[in-house]
Protein 1
Amino acid sequence: MAPKKSAAAASAASPSAPATTTAPTASTSTVAKTSASGPQSIDQVARNIVEHYQKTTPQRTKLIDVFMAFLVVVGGLQFAYCVLAGNYPFNAFLSGFSATVGQFVLTASLRIQTTEANKSDFPSISPERAFADYVVASLILHFFCVNFIN
Amino acid sequence: MAAVARDARPSSSPVELLVNVGKNQSTKTLLRVIILGFIAAAAVASRLFSVIRFESIIHEFDPWFNFRATKYLVAHGFYDFWDWFDDRTWHPLGRVTGGTLYPGLMVTSGVIYHLLRALTVPVDIRNICVLLAPAFSGLTAFAAYLLTNEMTTSPSAGLLAAAFMGIAPGYISRSVAGSYDNEAIAIFLLVFTFYLWIKALKLGSVLWGALCALFYGYMVASWGGYAFITCLVPLHAFVLICMGRFSMRLYTSYTTWYALGTLASMQIPFVGFLPVRTSEHMPALGIFGFLQLVAFLEYVRSAVPSRQFQTFLYVGLGGIFGISLLALIGLTTFGYIAPWSGRFYSLWDTGYAKIHIPIIASVSEHQPTAWPAFFFDLNMLIWLFPAGVYLCFQKLEDEHVFIIVYALFGSYFAGVMVRLMLTLTPVVCVAAAIAVSQLLDAYLVVKSPEPADNEEENLDSTGKKASKHGVLRTASQPVVGIYNLLSKGFVAGCMTLYLLIFVQHCTWVTSNAYSSPSVVLASRMPDGSQHIIDDYREAYQWLRQNTKEDAKIMSWWDYGYQIGGMADRPTLVDNNTWNNTHIATVGKAMSSREEVSYPIMRQHEVDYVLVVFGGLLGYSGDDINKFLWMVRIAEGIWPDEVKERDFFTARGEYRVDGEASDTMKNSLMYKMSYYNYASLFPPGQAQDRVRGARLPDQGPVLNTLEEAYTSENWIIRIYKVKDLDNVGRDHAAAASFERGHKKKKATKKRGPRVLRVD
């Protein structure tokens, strides 16, 4: 979408890796399906994405993705429970839910920073540095969550 | 290090050494440190006028509460402070202080207090409170230095910004010594949070994002103006996305900031669930969700390169943005999300407060700003400010977009409300420093620029900046140098002159306009010596020493904090205007007849009533001039008992002299203000110096109150509420009996009696 990035994106498209976050691949296709309206066959697109994902993603990144999928599931369950059973200790719900959301975005950031294709965006951050940052930010997040849940 | 040593070696003779000063890296660093030290010293020193002229006391109204809370924190410890229920304010109600204040300021000075004690420098807590704002202004200057250094590569811009920030009167006005208000540390936190945000955005680093969130949390703990950050950062992100500058760095920094910062802000009891419940915080949440979407679609795009898919992506993106906006509107209308609170809403609809919430409109700081105020507070920065913003447009990296967005919103808000000049000042300093440094960099170089330089730079930049040049053609202008030494000298000299004038202006403004403690009023005697009018403290001290420990004082809300702080007596209402009805009750008691007011005062267990009266001295901020606001606020609750119209004469004039309306003359406020006042003058000469009115010789009569204390210059008058009459008459009857208006001939005629009901 960015004109500035379009060159990089075009080159990245062929061999190397994905860019961002998403939840499990299953949800990928549903999202694509729901907002589909063009003449393009959506099945094709979804299959392309899945194939691309399986082909280009390194093992370690897939592990991260599994963790993110788990976080999405946990967050979804909490939200469903909140909808069903009411939100009486609202701080408890908020801290639990925002722990999953926060951990999700932090993990997504880690995934972004450790992906090869994004090297040009983060010239100063090595994967080790990214992991250390991730640990520090997660610790802060959990401190706040534990403090907020009372 | 080695390069430095090699540079330093050849310049062995003293002359060469002098020429080479500032050339090598370590001298530059040393100079920078020295300059920043001097700037911090100037920032602190220029705020000390009031301490040196008068004494080291807390000014104004709000700081008195902060001071009192800090004393409580220091005396009772942190946990007691956190659950402090204050039963000495809002008398029948009390105030849950721990949950209704921003604790950042008090905790900061508490920490400093204990730190100094640990270092065996026992400093009085009052002195820490008085000098906190100057100390933090030095830090603000440093934060402005850091922020500006992120904006430009020019070596001088940061130092200029620090100097501007250190002495700009727009910031000094809220941070002189003794002004122990939330803004004292909040502006430092504001600028520093913005610096961390820019740094996080540039590096895409999670750590800087987390630091930014931590300082954002500290800012939330300190000042209600944190909403400005909460709205500005998402806005910046949104503008970046709209400009097609979405990058993974934006994703990592923004989501880290939001996830941690929102949790951090919810730890403050006063904020609580507001970040998920109110409209002020919805932009941040919306952009958070939107960023997830954009990042995901970006991923999909990199996976499936197709022209058609791209357009579909844009449509999907716009569609989902629209849908979520609709959802937000729906949630707001159905009441799941609270709409904009009155204080914020009045920034958009500028007529709103005046009509619906008189208590907001009654504060003088909430008025629109006049043009001279901008020049008065910012002097030459105000005309360098647009130039600096223009220069930001020319470079237009991500961080410059921030300055532009901040400048637009900051100037709008500063135009709407006087006190928001404070949030504008940092961006003005940064933008003006960019402009000045650009000018000085061009004109202050002795060496003439070489044309070859130009080409080289172009070659160099083709790699990285090619796409940028495509975006903004105006940015790729040729470098034009200045060759004439005379023009260089002239322009640089002019600029230096302006800078010197700026310093002089700032010092003058600070000295004359912003360094007067409102607790003591200073005036000049005919021979030029200073005369101090200290009625406030005189009266508060009287209250402190001559009344019961739990005597309730009723006064207008302006003086609530000062009474609590200086007189240490419970009050009915104070400057924290959280209960409008209670304030309206006091307003009704002040503006009604005695017969109506007395039961109100009895019901609220009022022992003393305090009014401020400036008629003798010409002190215009007194209660008669505020009286109409009391009437308006009371009228908002009891429209059929208090009517503003009744306080004007038939011709619609607000008068206090003999021709004042009957309602006015019978109101408790009028009676208390002018009680016995005419006896001060020879007959027929009673004069109110504020209203410029001649008063009738026969002053008002008070039946239910008795005068307890009047200060030296009659500024503060304190009345004691009489007890019920011993034999059960009403006070008017009792008073007229006392005055000897006995019925001369006891008329035997019996009045119409009613049946006694037991």
Protein 2
Amino acid sequence: MGKSIARKEDPRFLRGKGRYVDDVILPNMLYMAILRSPYAHARIRRIDTSAALAAPGVKLVLTGEDLAKMNLAWMPTLNGDQQMVLAVDKVLFQYQEVAAVVAETRAQAEDALQLIEVDYEPLPVVVDPFKALEPDAPILREDREKKSNHIWHWESGDREETENVFRDAPVVVKQDVRFQRVHPSPLEPCGCVADYNTATGRLTFYVTSQAPHVHRTVIAMLSGIPEHQIRVISPDIGGGFGNKVGVYPGYVVAVAASLKLGVPVKWIETRTENIASTSFARDFHMTCEIAAREDGKVLGLRVKTIADHGAFDAAANPTKFPAGLFNIVTGSYDFKAAFVEVDAVYTNKAPGGVAYRCSFRVTEAAYLIERTMDVLAQRLKIDPAELRFRNFIRKDQFPYKSPTGWVYDSGDYEKTLKLALERIGYDELRKEQAEKRARGEFMGIGISTFTEIVGGGPKNTFDILGIKMFDSAEIRVHPTGKVIARLGVRHQGQGHETTFAQIIAEELGLSADDVLIEEGDTDTAPYGLGTYASRSTPTAGAAAALCARRIREKARKIAAHLLEVGEDDVVWDGTAFSAKGLPGKSVTMKDVAFAAYTDVPDGVEPGLEATYYYDPPNLTFPHGAYIAVVDIDKGTGAVKVRRFLAVDDCGNVINPMIVEGQVHGGLTEGFAIAFMQDIPYDSNGNCLAPNWMDYLVPTALDTPHWETDRTVTPSPHHPIGAKGVGESPNVGSPAAFVNAVVDALSPLGVEHIDMPLYPWKIWKILREHGINE
Amino acid sequence: MSVHEIEVTINGKKYQEQVESRMLLSDFLREKCGLTGTHVGCEHGVCGACTIHLNGSAVRSCLIFAVQVDGQEITTVEGLTKDGELTPLQRNFIECHGLQCGFCTPGILMSTTDYLQKNPNPTLQEIKEMLSGHLCRCTGYEGIIKAIQKTIDENNHHYEAERR
């Protein structure tokens, strides 16, 4: 624990010996390709597949009609809606799945797609979520009973109390903020190999899945194959970032094809398919109001949001949280009252919403409050750091109950921000900024002091399709003191094979080298809810520690037998058991392991292993203080990030090197979102950034250098005091970037600019103020 | 679709295969030769995960047809190690935490290995320019850059020691 040991997974990746889904090649395997809609909204009059079926190598062509016969034309989503697997009667977004071809090679399958004739009747398109709610808007979802594009209304907090606070408040600021539609874009796209064995009746399903056990249960419920006859294998995953949580139509079609053909069917999507049809992120149109005193003390928060969910509501949320944990939007501040409401809307776009290190909409929440706090600071002419100090939840207020009902576990916000200000040299930077302003130069400093909420979650409130959001560990100690441990989560590069070995090794007094970690095979790993929303350390990390402690308790019995003393006289010092008052007499865990198989005391079961399913009592609330320093080029509007400091507090750290890597990656995503990324749709519903030529991913040249630091405020309820951290950098950083740019332009009266902060946007603002004519 | 017989040397081993003229080199390596260390992230030449060495130079294997490499020599990530030992660059990727999910890693190793052979002492800016042909979604590039810099430093010490 706490050591930056090298990653166990690295050697195979460096040798090209990782095993990702597209690396799976099975005997007689066929390849599937999907025909997608060129229209955003259109009725399907007719599909003619006869020419495709006759094409070389083609074994099967599937349409929505074929799937309907198998009861698979629609599938349930995690947000309680249903989604078409292959289009039935109409299409609702461009790139929607319409038909599939299975052939001997991928090229043959793609060739045959061209031979499928689809007769479309274009329908009016809805891309603007506000227009979708107008009374005369075309109804997109004719399958629903409710004849409206409104999906649901959700609210949190106390409306009346908040109204009262606003009525009496001396200061109210109001800001419209859009968090644009982006996409997680893992380097490896989504894909699967479905292998149905007609002799055994078993389905083996290799899939890019962050939640393989849940996928198994969903597939069992959808396909009718008994769950014990389904083996889901999530092998090495080339990044997930929330993109690989849900079940995609391609997976279901591949399973259907393998069921029909009795041979393995592989489906690997292209980059364009990944961006244009799998889970997008964000797309929240938010209005935020803060009520405050004139000295900047905040009183009330009121937030109204229109959420664009695309054509199907497939946002990957816990069942009771259709807008995720967006009501963490009061952030790090002690508000007296808050009221948050969200209305979700259908549009002719791809489904999704919850993805890309968002921790269930915490990205939107953190961005909104951190952005609006700066608007308040600007209006009141209070330094943004000072405004934050005046409003932080104090260290002695934890556990702190927020006005929307979350109980924050621990935090020391003042300490974290103070460290950040000192390290970056805040006062000097402000002086430099004043001098630059006097010279007409645009330099900005942006602060974001966010609170995350990760580790979903307690069983009374958190479930995925009814399955409680626990997680699990199973540890087995071999006779020679070596260990195999399996967990119900599934890493996609976060280093679980190393960090979970560290946790278990620490608890058992062994070396992390002696502990093999496996995840992702539902035949062998204990049931878990998977890896997303930074939940692995809070849930499976806790399960691993407690499971190891169960083993230690049994080991104590065996140690007492070996030491020939009573169990109460056995002392564990972290590496060995010894007998109280008998120095020099001790046995290691290795000795105990051997005895567990060779010399077991009477009344003790042989072997040394345990299982633990951990239901977390609460979530963990890591926090951070991020500061960005930017310089804006007056001539071009280009923003240069001169410095960026991220101080994170995720409680006790298991492996500092890995945390650092998580932070670097997440900050790079936050940077991309703030400055480069957007998935726009034109008025015809054409997706305008369906590839990496138009949807930009920063390169090494674009990416700033990241400075990082840390404070440590352990989670009191977590067995090892650790909190999640993977998503903090993405949650916390966009506000720091935008606050810095707005701060730079504040002399012009600029209070807000929506992301992404493209140079042309800044250039236009400068030009409007006569700066760069 | 016309089919061609090609002969190509990959990681020192000769492969004789029938390929359709449209088969991409990346697919050839992965599917025909079982060398799945070469990854495909975009198929439009942007991400660089499919980078290999063609006659010693780093190239995108998703933008080359297999038939074009007839009679030529290829190295993939599987061929980087010598006698099973990781190269200094590979070891430094571990040391400096230059990888997470590992999907971009093979392509970046191939470009960097080629680049450092031709430019043994690049500046930080030059390293970033070389790396800008690769997308990584996990690391933010810091660990990768450190691993490359460390390798350069070690090489320089090595040369100095040899001169002495």
